[in-house]
Amino acid sequence: MELSSAFQVTPADGDRPGAFASFPYDRDLVRRFKESFPRARWRGAEERWFVPGTTAVRRLDAWMSQELEALDRHADAKGRDAFIFDPLTSPYLAAQDDLQVRTPYSRTVVEIMRTIPWAWWDSANRIWRVPFRSYEELRRRWPEIEEAARRNEPEARRRRREEQKSRPSGASDRVQAERRRRRYPVPGDDLPPLERPVSTPAWGVVVFEEIDEGVRDEAVREFYPHLQGNLSGYVWARWRMPWLQEVYSTKPAPEGEGLELRESRGWWLPSRDELQERARRLREIERAQRSREAGGKTQVDF
Is 176 left (phi over 0), alpha (psi -120 to 50) or beta? Predict the structure, then answer.
């Protein structure tokens, strides 16, 4: 598949004039796009950008043509030659018009693939597509990708579940018991916003509903490494899982923002990747519920 086919512009068919844009995820490309279209907004439910305006289609077509012209026309040929000379052989990789990566779902794989220049997710075929120009970077990261893929094969996951069940009650049970309490310690002088998705290192993206009593039990430090110093400075915040529409409507934090707060404050505004991961899990929950209602036995846990 030609890389240019991953750059698509679709006129909006709603009441608001504008156009939708989709293109491979690349940090520099997204930065240039935002600079050219500051009013653009990411539509998580549709996995594409919306650019308002009656001239959006023409402006997007011109911008994409310019980006494609800037690419090294010989880069794919060089990458293909490198692949032929030193190919990767793996059940998770196929080479056709481009390199196609298909693995069991793994958050590690997603995070790595997002760092591969010009790699993009083909949702119709449920594979990652990587142009040959990015072969060297894919080859460099491949051991991590393949290891994560094998670790997430259904059989490997089943073995881990069985091993976990056979172990005596311990740390895992304590973590689950704490999770069921639906509480989270936050600094009393730096409270999270209520009723909007927020990221935490312990439970992922959640929504805090209310602030409760102060934290007193020293034993909870086992579950919350961000607790520092005297516990008197912390209070419990009660949380719930977000609704899918809440996740879709939440504006992601700028890339990299909040990383320094993971070990100090313990909460931060979620990134685009974190929101997408939570949305994916919520969609799985919805599918599992529909399956159970229809008489199936599928079960998905957060």
Answer: alpha
Model confidence pLDDT, tens digit, residues 155-174: 988 887 777 666 555 667 78
Query: How far apart, in whole angstroms, are the C-alpha atoms of residue 177 and residue 179?
Result: 5
CA distances from 192 to 199, 200, 218 (A): 10, 11, 22
Ramachandran region, residue 229 (left: φ > 0; alpha: ψ -120 to 50; beta: rest): left
User: pTM, whole model, 2 decimals?
Assistant: 0.47
Task: For the chain, report the end-to-end CA distance as a whole number of angstroms.
Answer: 36
Task: Give which of 245, 243, 197, 241 is closest to 44, Cα–Cα.
Answer: 245
Reference 100, options 75, 117, 125, 77; nearest CA is 125
Handedness of CA 83, 85, 91, 97 (dihedral sign): positive
Map residue 201 onto helix, strand or coil: coil
Interatomic CA distance for residues 176 and 220, integer angstroms: 13
* CA dihedral sign of residues 194, 200, 203, 204: positive
* 59, two tokens: 């402006």
User: Tokens 């929950």 label which residue?
Assistant: 285
Residue 71 burial (C-beta neighbours within 10 Å; 0-12, 13-18, 19+)? middle
The single-letter DSSP state of residue 268 is B
Q: Virtual CA dihedral for 89, 100, 272, 277, nearest 10 degrees?
A: -70
d(CA 188, CA 233): 6
Cβ neighbours of residue 285 closer than 8 Å, sequence gap 6 or more: 300, 302
Give tens-digit pLDDT for 49-60: 999 998 999 999
Structure tokens at 205: 């993206």
The CA-CA-CA angle for residues 302, 44, 107, to 5°, reads: 40
